[in-house]
């Protein structure tokens, strides 16, 4: 089990290498989640939310080397359309997996618990690349060797309605 200090050091290193500037109070307020799986370095995510209103949301997603954000969907709920989101790679390299033709030659390894993943069309983003996902799009992503920072611009973010393929996931789970 990694110590909080070790994880914090790695997060701060990616923030520094990426050139992302966050105030001390923003760093202290980072959402650091392992999704309730107790394997943060394999499946986890660090999130800084700039704004989340009824109309829009802006976040920075900090992903450690080879770390995966588990497969999920931001679904339509009643009359509220699912989240539309655009990811822009600010640092590193990240593979985003979406519905579509399965990519035969992947640029990264698949997660160990492959039974909890069902979409395998790989889109690789490098610094300056971006991808927009329509509402209700199932997706997951994995950072490459250096980790990654993704900016996310979206419609309202409502974590409580997210649907994860892995039934063991608890989205509200935070490490510290």
Automatic annotation (TrEMBL):
InterPro entries: D-lyxose_isomer (IPR010864), RmlC-like_jellyroll (IPR014710), RmlC_Cupin_sf (IPR011051). Belongs to the D-lyxose ketol-isomerase family. This is D-lyxose ketol-isomerase. Pfam families: Lyx_isomer (PF07385). Its EC number is 5.3.1.15. It is an enzyme of class 5 (isomerase). The lineage of its organism: Bacteria, Pseudomonadati, Pseudomonadota, Gammaproteobacteria, Vibrionales. The keyword Membrane does not apply. Its cofactor is Mn(2+). SUPFAM superfamilies: RmlC-like cupins. It catalyses: D-lyxose = D-xylulose. Coiled coil: none annotated. Keywords: Carbohydrate metabolism, Isomerase, Manganese, Metal-binding. Transmembrane segments: none annotated. GO terms for molecular function: D-lyxose ketol-isomerase activity; metal ion binding.
